[in-house]
Task: inverse folding
């Protein structure tokens, strides 16, 4: 990185833009390029080219190449880098963009890109309330509040459902079911911390009729928080349980990004 006019700085910039640079090296590179005009210019130019290729993939006979594939080709990298540097030198001196080409601007662009990525992940969340399935284990002690809570749930009144289900005694046979439905209602009401705690308790109790569903909705909370790593772990656990949520979990796994990329 000390030889900023050539390798390995060029390779680091290319890997950083492609999202393939390991985290420790990426962090070190970030600390460096904000203070290095050469590396910053190179990075901004490559980012501009990457964005253009993502919008307009390179077409060759029988195949369409996006940015990750193009950046994997040494010849393509050389050509793109030459175009990028020339283009950036011309672009950076234009009066209408001169004020948008410094480190602060690149930080803002990077933050905007990360925000867009987080939004895309959060939009994958499935907030559909699961249908109510009455437990075969019922008792008179919990019956009144449980029945009232689940009536509110079936009517779509999650706030009332949470209030009534909270009154079901912990020793009641209805308690596990009450806790699960209270948790998904908290999720629906966007009370994510409360929902995470409630559903986490349900999932941690081990094998139960509610365990798989609790894990699935914990994954939805992770998605809403744009935590694709936690969502992936919970969804993979759901798939491994081979229950009724397996196909839904597999579908969501297929929509998650293959990796958490730094630039999009």
Result:
């Amino acid at each position: 990185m000390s030889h900023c006019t050539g390798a390995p700085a060029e390779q680091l910039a290319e890997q950083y833009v492609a999202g393939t640079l390991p985290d420790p090296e990426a962090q070190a590179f970030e600390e460096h390029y904000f203070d290095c005009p050469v590396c910053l210019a190179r990075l901004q130019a490559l980012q501009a080219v990457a964005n253009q290729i993502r919008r307009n993939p390179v077409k060759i006979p029988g195949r369409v190449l996006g940015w990750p594939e193009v950046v994997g080709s040494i010849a393509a990298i050389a050509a793109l880098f030459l175009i990028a540097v020339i283009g950036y030198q011309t672009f950076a001196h234009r009066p209408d963009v001169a004020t948008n080409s410094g480190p602060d601007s690149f930080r803002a662009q990077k933050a905007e890109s990360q925000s867009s990525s987080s939004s895309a992940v959060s939009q994958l969340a499935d907030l559909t309330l699961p249908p109510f399935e009455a437990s075969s284990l019922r008792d008179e002690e919990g019956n009144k509040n449980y029945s009232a809570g689940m009536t509110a749930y079936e009517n779509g009144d999650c706030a009332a459902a949470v209030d009534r289900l909270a009154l079901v005694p912990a020793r009641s046979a209805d308690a596990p079911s009450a806790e699960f439905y209270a948790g998904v209602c908290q999720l629906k009401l966007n009370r994510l911390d409360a929902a995470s705690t409630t559903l986490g308790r349900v999932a941690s109790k081990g094998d139960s009729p509610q365990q798989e569903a609790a894990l699935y909705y914990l994954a939805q909370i992770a998605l809403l928080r744009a935590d694709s790593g936690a969502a992936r772990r919970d969804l993979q656990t759901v798939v491994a349980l081979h229950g009724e949520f397996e196909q839904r979990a597999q579908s969501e796994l297929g929509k998650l990004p293959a990796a958490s990329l730094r630039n999009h």
Summary: The chain has two domains: 9-101, 140-255. Residues 70-75, 113-117, 259-264 have pLDDT under 50 and may be disordered. Residues 53 and 257 are 18 Å apart (CA to CA).
